[in-house]
Every structure is written in structure tokens, then in C-alpha cells.
Amino acid sequence: MHDLDPTDECSVPNQHSTAHPIAVQRPRRIGILLNGLDGKANTVALRFLILEMNRIQRTFEYEFLPFERDDLLETLRSQMRLNRTDIKSQTADFHQRYRAYLAGLNKDFLLKEAPPDYFIVVCLATFDDDYYTTRKDRVSVIALGNWERHMAPPSIVEFLLTLIVREAVASVSPLLGGSVHLGTKGCLCDFTPQLDDARFKVLNAFVCGHCANALSTDKLPQLVEELQFVLSKKWLGLTSKVGTPAAIALKLGHDLFATKGLQPTFWEQALKTLQEEGTKQILTLIGAVVGAVLLVWFGIKGS
User: Where do the domains of the chain lie?
Assistant: First the structure.
């Protein structure tokens, strides 16, 4: 299970272009397509968590878009191992088709904002060379078919949030548009040639010196601090604290700290039920004890 190879690329302005998308006032808009996840994931909770990242940083703006049936999207729903080079060869045409489709919807509904120019397709496909991301022609594909439960922690949702951030970075930084360093540093841009190493880029919330320098060269020095905050996942909060993203996700049906995959297993759901029932029983017991104490107290006072 690998990240990108050096031939992966994004159509972003080079570091000498005056049109480089660096202004904080104009975030890089990223269209997200959850392709083939319906019925296999809690997409409502997942969409909420991805959109929550809009609130905590300024460089990127993620948005979910409607999509119709498309040859590339249909291929990425296949359960067969797919040729990644073949997928990359289709991205330019897909980008053109999809932008035209969105422009048509804008015209039909008299909408003012133009569609985003960069898209990330999230799917459960598996590439035959065991890479899990690829990008070309302003389209990134995150293929999660190779994710295995023994890789948790982190959960697949945490893994996905990190990969989306990684693809967003590639969309604005030419120097980080392909694979970066062989060594596993726990950095967002780790190549991760070993399957078990992939978790460190999710758990460590780190941008290494090489990548920080690359962002500075690409006139994006402010992005390092943003990335480290987003990747730390501290903004998720606790499920026990009302109003935190973790608590809201739990109300939407996904427990970030108990569910490893896109959906809870039987045992994860059973454990959650036991914990909830145990809490109820403890509260009932506390109520009974307090009631008994009050009865005794009032009995003494009455006498």
C-alpha cells in the first residue's frame, strides 16, 4: 500500500507564476465526490467532518457536489483491481466532462459561483500496484480498497481526512505535487512504502523540514501551521462534550473513538450498547442512592 509515485502530477501554476493561488482571501476550492460509499459508510457523518475542516483553516475550502453517472466513476466502483495508469489517463476527459456538467447545473438554476477547478474522488477501489492515491489533470483519486482494520488506530475516517488534506496540498504546491521523501517521518507527505507505515502520517500531525521549505518556496509559508493544527485532530474534541465535532458525529451515528472502519462491526456496536447501558445503570443506581439518603434525611428531620 503506497502513496504517490514521482510521475503523479497536478495541474497547478508553477512557483514562478503570478497567478499562484496563495491568497488567504481566496481559498483553494476543492470539490469532493464520495463515489460508491452509499450503503457502505455513514456518509452524513463523514461529510460533516470533512466540511468542519472549512471552519478551522483558511487555505482550502472543501465542498460536496452533485454528480451523475460517468464512465470513470463507474470504473472506480468496480471490485476488481484497477490499473492506476489507465485511471490516470482518463482524468483529463473526466475533468472536462464534470466541469461542463456542473456549469450546466449552474445555468439551469441561475447560480452565481462557478464550479471549483480541482476534484478529489473518494472511492473503495483497489489499484493493482497497491498505491492508494493518484492524481493528474486537477483530479485526485483516493482509493481505500486496500485499507485493513488492523491498521487502526487510526480509524479509516481519520485516515481519509488526512489524505484529503494531502491532496489539497498537492493542488496548490507544485513542489509537493508528487511523492516527496522515502523516509517515514510521520510527515503528511511520507511515501510510506510499507503498509504499516501509512498510519504514522495520520497519527503524528507533522510537516517535516523539507516539506515546510517546499511550501515556503511555493509562497505558502502560512500553510505549515494550518496543516499541523488540522492534522492534530484536536479540533475533533470529545464525544462526551456537547457541541464538539466528535459529539455531533456521534449523534449522526458515527463514534470516532470506537469505530475503526466506515461502519461499526457487530462487536463495536455491542460494546457501544454495553457502555451506554452501563452508564444508564450507574445513573439509575446513583439516583436510587440519593433518593434513599433523602428519605432517611427527611425521616430524621420529621422525627
Answer: 28-264, 267-303
Q: How far apart are CA 75 and CA 48, in angstroms?
A: 26
Which residue intervals of the chain are DSSP H helices? 43-56, 71-75, 84-89, 91-109, 156-172, 198-203, 209-217, 223-232, 245-251, 266-302
C-alpha to C-alpha distance for 42 and 243, rounded to whole angstroms: 19
Pairwise CA distance, residues 215 & 118, whole Å: 19
What is the rounded distance in angstroms from the CA atom of residue 61 to the CA atom of residue 47? 13
User: Which CATH topology does 28-264 take?
Assistant: Collagenase (Catalytic Domain) (3.40.390)
Query: What is the C-alpha separation between 268 and 11, in angstroms, rounded?
Result: 42
| 3-state helix/strand/coil string of 48-63 | HHHHHHHHHCCCEEEE
Q: Is 136:92 a contact under the CB 8 Å cutoff? A: yes
Greater model confidence, 164 or 285? 164
Q: What is the DSSP letter of 38?
A: B
Distance CA 225, CA 8 (A): 26
For 189-201, what is each residue's pLDDT tens digit? 999 876 678 889 8
